[in-house]
Design a protein that fits this description.
- The protein is α+β, with helices and mostly antiparallel strands and 169 residues long.
- It has a domain of 117 residues: Gcn5-related N-acetyltransferase (GNAT) (Aminopeptidase).
- The protein has five helices and seven strands; from the N terminus they run βαααβββαβαββ.
- The chain has a seven-stranded mixed sheet, sandwiched between helices.
- The radius of gyration is 15 Å and the shape is globular.
- The two termini are 18 Å apart.
Amino acid sequence: MLRPLRYGDEHDLLDYRRRTDVCRYIPSEPLTEATVADFITERMGLTEITCDGDRLILALELDGQVIGDLLVRGGQVADRQTEIGWVLHPDFHGHGYATEAARELINLSFADLQMHRVWAQLDPRNTASAKLCERIGMLQEAHLRESMWFKGGWSDTAIYAILRSEWRG
């Protein structure tokens, strides 16, 4: 089930987002007991994309437990593009949950938000996310070398995308 983050998700979020291996390829630092409530407060109201730069943050819930969180970020609304992203608890890797959730983000972007293009950016060393992008039909459009200063070093960026006309739903 996908739903907005809410108070009460603290324990589940800390269970995976406090891990350095989970945060290795994402911009945020590991959560702590002191930062998790602010993390939820900042994101729980992000539930629609109507203006340039809006974000939609959703919890991925399985049997009452939050096992991941998801992002849909709008660019300029006139360009009709969204960026998608995901973070999944490692204990739930390999069961298809991230694939199912990412497909739902694409469906949401094309069907509900009427977008033209959906894209994802990732560190190419994150092979699990690269394979996920390919599995859901996204094509690698770019590999930017040392394109950003990230967590103390230069990092490459891979861009994957899919167009509405290519999406099979």
